[in-house]
Amino acid sequence: MATQLLVDIEQVLHELCAERAIPVESVKFFGSHTLGTAQNESDVDIVLVSPGFEGKDIFQRAGMTKGIHRDLVKRFKVPFDIVFCSVSEWVHGSSPLLQGLRRAA
C-alpha cells in the first residue's frame, strides 16, 4: 500500500521528468518504505522506467536526469536510491538486479 509520502514523491518525480522531457512509463517503489518497515534513516528506493532511456548508456542517462536526485532530497529531506531503467530492460532484463527489482516492486 502506498503511503502519502510515496504518492507525493511519484507526483514530484513526474514533474521533474516532464521538465527534462523524459517520458515516464512507470515509477516503481521497493524496499522498506513499501514494506512498512522504514526507519527515520531509511532511503526511498525507486525504479524509474522510461522509453527515453532506450539505447542510452549510464553516462547519457546521468546527463538526462541531472539534478533529479538532488531536487528530491532537497524537497523531501530523505535519502533516495534511484535506478533509471529503459522499458525493454524492465520487461526483458535478465540481470540479477533487475530480476530482484521486478519481484520487489
Whole-number radius of gyration?
13 Å
| Overall morphology | globular
Number of strands: 3
Biggest sheet statistics: 3 strands, mixed
Number of helices: 6
Mean pLDDT across every amino acid position: 93
List low-pLDDT spans: none
Run of helices and strands: HEHEHHEHH
Distance between the termini: 11 Å
Strand order of the largest sheet: 1-2-3
Helix content: 40-55%
* Helix/strand structural class: alpha+beta
Measured by DSSP, the beta-strand proportion falls in 15-25%
Oligomer classification: single chain
Tell me what you see in this structure.
This protein has 105 residues and is α+β, with helices and mostly antiparallel strands. The protein is built from 6 helices and 3 strands. Strands 1-2-3 form a 3-stranded mixed beta sheet.
In short:
The chain has helices at 4-19, 32-35, 58-64, 68-76, 87-92, 96-104, and strands spanning 26-30, 44-50, 80-86.
Q: Keywords, please?
A:
105 residues; 6 helices; alpha+beta; globular; 3-stranded mixed β-sheet; 3 strands
